[in-house]
Amino acid sequence: MGFNFHGPRTTDMTKQMCHFIKTLQYEDIPPAVIERAKMMVMQTVGVSICSSELKQIKDAIEISKEMSPGSEGVATLWADGKKVSWEAAAFTAGTMGDCLDWEDCSVTGHPSCGVIPAAVIASEVLHKSGKELLTAVVVGYEIYQRVALAGRGGITSYNIFGILPTMMKLMDLSEEQMNQAFGVGTACATIPANIHEITMSDSLNYLYGCRAENCITMIKTVLNGIQNMEDAFDDPSAYLAHCGYQEPEWLTKELGEHWMMMDMLLVKHWPANVFVQTYAELASRLVTKNKYNPDDIEEIIIRPSVAFRHWYTDVGYESLTQAQFSIPYATACAMYHPDPGAVWYQPETMKDPKIIALMNKVKADGFVKMGGLKLIKDMIDGKHPEKFMIVHLKDGTEYVESAFTHPGHPSYMMTRDEFKERFRLETKNVLSTEKIEGALDCICHLDEVEDAAVLPEFFY
Amino acid sequence: MRYNRLYKENNYLTPTTNTQTLSEYAVNLKYEDIPAEVVERAKMILLQTIGVSLAARNTETAEKVLKMSREANGGEGGATTVWGTGKKMSAVNAALALGTMADALDWEDCSWTGHPAAGVIPCAWLAAEERHKSGKDLITAIVAGYEVYQRIAMAVQPSEERRKNKGWGLTSWQIFGCIIPIAKLYDMDARKVNQAIGVGCECSTLPACYHATTMSDFYHYEHGYRARDGFLIAKAVEKGIHNQRDALDEPRCYTGVICGNDGSNGSGETLIRSAEADLTWLTRDLGTRYLIVETLLKHWPANMWVQTSAELVHQLSVKHGFGGDDVEEILIDAPVLNRMWAPAEGFTSVTHAQFSIPFVVAAMLCNPTPGADWFTAENMKDPKVIALMQRVKAGPSPETSPSEGFKMFREETGYPMKTVTVKLKNGETYQGSMDCHPGHPRNMMTREEFVDRFRIQASPVLQGERLEKAIETLCSIETVDDIASLADLLS
Questions:
Q1: What ipTM was estimated for this complex?
Q2: Structure pTM?
Q3: In terms of domains, do B208 and B277 share one?
Q4: Last residue of a domain, one of B406, B437, B468
């Protein structure tokens, strides 16, 4: 074991995580967890493909092509089809994953936009089987969640600890190499500051893309050979010492016994922030069920709202992140576009006078009690109250809908058929019907696929 | 747009505009405004950094990073050239290679806060080549990079206690030395430079310095990683993002987090309790004082606190004509904390060896020409070198710490005095003392000395006419109309 100023470590949490990654077998994973892993592949790929309708992803694709000008590409550029380098493909796919804020939300962030592209692209490059892909996905989620709970960092930084284990597994690193890779990951982890959230910037998507790209280099750096960097999660001045809080017991908690991806991971039903989901759900239900014209709305009351997502604008939004974080905007958008998609965040939609007018008719009647940083965890634990949406039309008609949560919440998970329907909706403007159905069939039968390199062939 | 949700009472605007001031400085800086001695220093830093990168060309580190860069590039091709190879790559991947190579021998520079040269120089050169900018544009971008980098880095320097308990994040704030010259050469306006700084803040790595804790050679790759990230960030911002401005004006975005101490830091719900960041540095003497001239340029391929001891031993050996076989004992006084490593088994990590006064002194006496040969796997395990380094010992004075030295360096109150005593087997004893070695800002090398050093550094790649042509071109870089025209110069 390599040098450390602090002498021998008194704990071995890093080693325990490495051992879990190394030894987990497909056969050890319960069928329900495998099914969830497949559905997370489906969901994340679907929303990623959908995001290619947006300018930011077209830009990311250009950057990827520019950074991989050679003729020896090994990975498929999603939504484009060009073969580029592994790193370049990861950059775009990583940027895509959260672009519509539609993939997932765990109690700590968005593991799917790291784990899923990492697993799918690595499996393509390495020609791994579907079972190996799914095993790596499970490893990625389980380690991500534990690291993220052990110490608060930047939301995009957590993804390093979803991507690295996924790749460690697929690239068959030794436990010693995994240990070094974790050290490299902690050295590349970013500060616990979410500036994109403070400034409501869509830079967030590129941050995810950078993390996805960086992680491949991290693994390759270790595989090519470096000295030391071991036991970073056990060192008193390393990663955890810089996190917002330190609860190291999470790192190895119930590893291999409790599958956190089953109860700490919410699947988004709508392209919007996690706290916006149920309101978008209610808005869509109301307009679909009652078939009124949103132009005829006098007022929309929501009870309770969430204070730090209750933003208005008189001029519309430029940053899609800012729009995604506004309950009034999503409510108005869901009324005018009850079938969600990239259209919600096209510039003309975010500046649509009708949507701006309607969002300013959305009124909050009270707010969910804030529970500090536990707010997301409480929501995923089902502790948030029932939400009501009351629509008053100009003619005096009133419609009311309520829900505790939305399809995709861990306690209200979508069925496979519902996931498939969502995938069709997400990809309909980008992929042919043949490709959509081919992708669905491939994902649903991943455990039977001998070479998962076939999967990205459906993504353009 | 400028938007910060934490300042609702101020129309969502931060009350200060330090980020914008820095951004406008970078955008508005013109070659003609830069004093001649600053231009000359920028050129010498360019020469030095290219030289030490070429010196590293045949190291294992370079071979590995070149392999990774090529893979990330999807094979050869692109708008920029990797020094020492002549291979074409995209700027992003070339930056990974050159950032790593620039620090691989720990021979480029050391400022008050780290190694800006390993970020500024490759990023500036590659961006200039990529966008067909002139030599004057290149120099201006280098100066802008140093000036902005140094001020941000100085604003977040840790207290002694923090440095001891949490490390020193020199590879973290390095990102700003990478972003600024690229942004300048990409002709970004101040709004976009402001955004790029904001993305840089959010991409700043934890200032944990784990490479130092474990003495890992990953240290050198980190410089390449930051250079690569600098291009990715600049390209993303150039394409267009929204908001992400004024990050240096809100403690929860950067300064208070880097210098923070408690669990609430970074949260929008609570106040930053740490007042450790010195925000006055952000715009201090901007445009009137050039901090680039305070940069130390290394004379030897080794850690900063190894330099003076290596210099003294070198001078004594040249003056008195002794070699390693003649040495009975060498005393380093005052010894330096964590720089006196001399393990009986030698070293496996290049970084660890570079941080060892005994090893560097022994390697030099066994092979007086500085370069990559000192840090080969064989040399770091060579019984002859190991035997000699174990005869390099601490003198009688108490150990001094690198952080004490940095305090003197930054506050310009002097520099640690070293006395080296060499006892030969024949009974002769020689002694020498020095504080500021050649390359220290108070004992800066002349152009001729830089050029002489470059000849040694670049020799693994350039010899004869090609070497002289490179020297002539780099020393008159301000006359070059298009840096891309120099694609063949450095290989």
A1: 0.97
A2: 0.97
A3: yes
A4: B437
